[in-house]
Amino acid sequence: MAKLEYNEIKERKYIIYKDEPFEVLESHVARTQQRKPQNQVKMRNLINGKVIPATFHSTETADEADVTKREAKFIYASKGEFWFTDPKDPKNRFTVDENIIGDKAKFLKGDTIVELQIFEYEDEETVIGLKLPIKMTFEVKDAPPAIKGNTASGGGKLVTLETGAQVTTPFFIEVGEKIVVNTETGEYVERVK
User: Fold this and answer.
1) Range in 4-8, 135-139, 165-169 with the lowest mean pLDDT
2) I need a surface site. Which of 38, 39, 92, 122 has the fewest CB within 10 A?
3) Are 8 and 27 in contact (CB under 8 A)?
4) CB half-sphere exposure, 7, CA atoms < 13 A
């Protein structure tokens, strides 16, 4: 683990603060005439997601957190447990807590390759985040019928995807069609031809 000086604690750095991993969201080194310089930061706890402020003085350091990324393949979800496997070794199965997955669960479907963020501390690995592919294809399972003439006016309708997620799409999208959705914003991108 590397030691970071107070002025090296910057955006997109992962640090250990009070024995927990944090991602630095904002940092500002303030230098006043009367006082020694200090770094005022806003950071997000990678385990519970809370955003907190902190101040690091010129004499302080922080340990850089060991956060690695690893691919995993989603298998299924059951009773709040989300099961994954190593894509290279299907026998190696493990669960990820639903608190880590959060609202991304609505876009998880079987055989999806995701990127897990793993925090390593004192010889222990903890999954702290999950990143879906930005664009994914889904089948529309439920959609209100399109009424003749309303497709030219713009706007949209709420459709239900195979995973149960609801997305606003143009009026011409029908049940059984496949659409591409941006998983970061939850927005419709295009219809798959």
Assistant:
1) 4-8
2) 122
3) no
4) 6
Residue with tokens 């222990």: 124
Domains 3-64 and 135-191 share a fold: no
Record the tokens describing residue 139, joined without a space.
């089948």
Phi-psi domain of 171 (left: phi exceeds 0; alpha: psi -120 through 50; beta: other): alpha
CATH architecture label of 135-191: Beta Barrel (2.40)
The lowest-confidence range among 8-22, 98-112, 147-161, 179-193 is 147-161
Question: What span, in angstroms and rounded, lies between the C-alpha atoms of 67 and 138?
Answer: 31
Based on DSSP, count helices (H) and strands (E) in the chain, helices before strands: 1, 16
Task: Please state, in angstroms and rounded to a whole number, the distance separating the CA atoms of residues 21 and 45.
Answer: 6
Residue 10 to residues 4, 31, 39, Cα–Cα distance (Å): 10, 16, 9
pTM: 0.72
Q: In a 3-state reduction of DSSP, which class is residue 188?
A: strand
